[in-house]
Amino acid sequence: MKFALTAFAAAALATMTALPAQAATIVNLNGVANASLTGTNGVKVTLDAGTYNLSFLNSPNLAFTRFSSVAGCDGAGKNCVQGWENSARYIIDGTTYLFGDGAGSGGLGPLGVGDGYYSSAALSFANSGIYQGSFKLDTASEVTFFIYDDNLSDNSGGVSLSVAAVPEPAAWMMMIVGIGAIGGLMRRKRTTASVRYA
Fold first, then answer.
1. CA dihedral 149, 152, 155, 157 (to 10 degrees)
2. Among residues 194, 89, 97, which one has the least CA distance to residue 149?
3. How far, CA to CA in Å, does 14 sit from each of 19, 42, 154, 170, 173?
4. CA nearest to 159, candidates 197, 131, 196, 191
């Protein structure tokens, strides 16, 4: 029994270490170079089949603006008529999806969730945590990320996106089994040797 448990724990540990690391893919979008209405100059990334979480990062880009100046902000630097935003779009198999401030609504400005445009890139990014997206790929696919805009002469800044794979349930199960087996081995009582002197 001891050998079987030890062999099982070793196999579980080997399986855990064999699981691929799920490092996030970083996508950096420039407010000029990667902006268009159709994604023709977007950043193309090939991703394996699976589920992915999408969020904004603060490096190297905080936010972008499609205006030459900031205008019409409230006292908190929010709800501006013109200002900074965190938004992007992405295309999977010919379908375009929207993410971020106003779901990247372009010249219409941020709509729905959020506080409109912001007075600075830092303030826009500080409020970007409310946007958490996800998508699922049934097969390995190319995904195109871009900023939605057509008048690029007054754009500046950009956004950085984290595209992180979500571990599959089978991978989680193997990790739980492996950790449980190792924990079981660690809880075994240690035998102590007693010495008697005659």
1. 80
2. 89
3. 9, 40, 54, 15, 14
4. 131
Q: pLDDT digits over 132-145, tens only?
A: 899 999 999 999 99
Give the C-alpha separation, 177 to 98, whole Å: 38
Which residue type occupies 46? T
pLDDT, greater one: 129 or 196: 129
Domain spans of the chain? Answer: 1-19+168-198, 22-166
Q: What integer pLDDT is reported at residue 52 of this predicted model?
A: 98
Architecture of the domain delimited by 22-166: Sandwich (2.60)
Long-range contacts of 95-103 (CB under 8 A, 24+ apart): 96/39, 97/133, 97/135, 98/148, 99/54, 99/131, 99/133, 99/161, 100/56, 100/128, 100/131, 100/159, 101/128, 101/131
Contact by Cβ (8 Å): 23, 73: no
For residue 140, count CB atoms less than 10 angstroms from its CB and return exposed for 0-12, middle for 13-18, buried for 19 or more: exposed
Please give the distance of CA 76 from its chain centroid, rounded to a whole number: 28
